[in-house]
């Protein structure tokens, strides 16, 4: 059990180590955390040709008996990692997955409407963590800079 537990840390750091060693060939890493549907039998995605060509290596690891997966894509030099990530997340949405897999949306992922509404109810002033889930960063959750109180 103890050794198996340690393997997750080795797997999780493999992409970062590869980037450090092969920095001349690698643009960066696109790291996604997704959860498949409970009845999903297709655990391996098929990336469209344009994305597949940009990806040098794929590392996939998950939680035992769980549908949460960490997907690290090593992207070849010269490709736009942010654009690739957005394309991959759109594909994940079409596939019916949830993302992020675990920790929460933070400032990287867009909160689904129910979660964004929860944040607004929890913090009507929008002063504790403005912008979480790609929501408004302005006081009282105003939507645009023109409405911002300065």
Description:
With 150 residues, the chain is α+β, with helices and mostly antiparallel strands. The chain folds into 2 domains: 2-95, 2-Layer Sandwich (Ribosomal Protein S8, Chain: A, domain 1); 113-147, no CATH class. Helix content is 34%, strand content 18%. The protein has 4 helices and 3 strands; from the N terminus they run αβαββαα. The chain has a 3-stranded antiparallel β-sheet, sandwiched between helices. A hairpin with a 5-residue loop joins strand 2 and strand 3. The chain is globular and about 45 Å long.
Which class best fits the helix and strand makeup? alpha+beta
User: SSE order, as H and E?
Assistant: HEHEEHH
- Poorly predicted residue ranges: 146-150
Helical content (DSSP H or I, runs of 4+)? 25-40%
> Percent of residues in beta strands?
15-25%
Could you give a short account of the major beta sheet? 3 strands, antiparallel
CATH topology of the largest domain: Ribosomal Protein S8, Chain: A, domain 1
Give the domain tally. Answer: 2
Shape verdict: globular
Structure summary, number of beta strands: 3
Features:
150 residues, alpha+beta, Ribosomal Protein S8, Chain: A, domain 1, 2 domains, 34% helix, disordered C terminus
Fold blueprint:
Blueprint lengths: L1 H20 L4 E10 L13 H6 E8 L5 E9 L4 H15 L17 H10 L28
Antiparallel strand pairs: 1-3, 2-3
Overview in brief:
The protein is α+β, with helices and mostly antiparallel strands and 150 residues long.
